[in-house]
Amino acid sequence: MNIIPTIYIAYLLLHEVQLLVEFFGEMEEFHNIVKVTLNCYFSTGSHDCSAEFLYNKETIDNLRASNDKCYHKNKLCKFDTCACSNECKQYTLILTNTYFTDGDIFGCEVHYNDAGYIHRLTTEILFNGSDFLYHNTLSNIVARPDKDSSSTKPPKTRKPITRDEIFIVLLSVLVTIIVCGLPITFIAIRRRNKDDAHNDLIMEHSMTDALFVLKYYLNKG
Fold this sequence. Notes:
By secondary structure, the protein is of the alpha+beta class. The protein has two domains: 1-17 and 161-221; 18-159, Immunoglobulin-like, CATH 2.60.40. It is built from two helices and eleven strands, in the order H-E-E-E-E-E-E-E-E-E-E-E-H. A seven-stranded antiparallel β-sheet has the order 6-5-4-3-9-10-11, with no helix packed on it. Strands 1-2-8-7 form a four-stranded antiparallel β-sheet, with no helix packed on it. A hairpin with a 5-residue loop joins strand 7 and strand 8. The radius of gyration is 32 Å and the shape is elongated.
């Protein structure tokens, strides 16, 4: 009986992971050359196949995927500057010999369509002087469907799921399975022990009866 709620809870938790956005940065230094790689991933793909990269709330570049190619600032991306996926889900910007300070904030902004409503989603990471940490996620509606559209009510905003939240979800599912499974395991072990004890009792009675019969025939002889 505990297995059904466990599967149902897992389904609900995983069902909420519909809109996944990941934005992270990596810094490398080689022969006095500093390279910062910013990766922005959006699970459903951006509405206009583009992503805007921000530095302290200001735009530093805009990547756009078109015809199996990636563009930035109206130029074709090179392998050491930027890249886009054909599905409009992943965008990579590479900054070389650009130095940043502790507290700088980087952002990745994309647009997505939800029932005719265009949302702007911005995910931010914070540079702490040596590494990049998750900072904030913002979402708001920037365009609404036409009045003639059958859709009149705005959809519920789906909160983006970060990597840490996915880990918490999976950990919660694992704990639920363990907690629900322990009573079943305990009952099964206890029932098995009772069955073993009952079998031992039957064996003991059988041996007693056999010894009684054997003793009766020996005395008779």
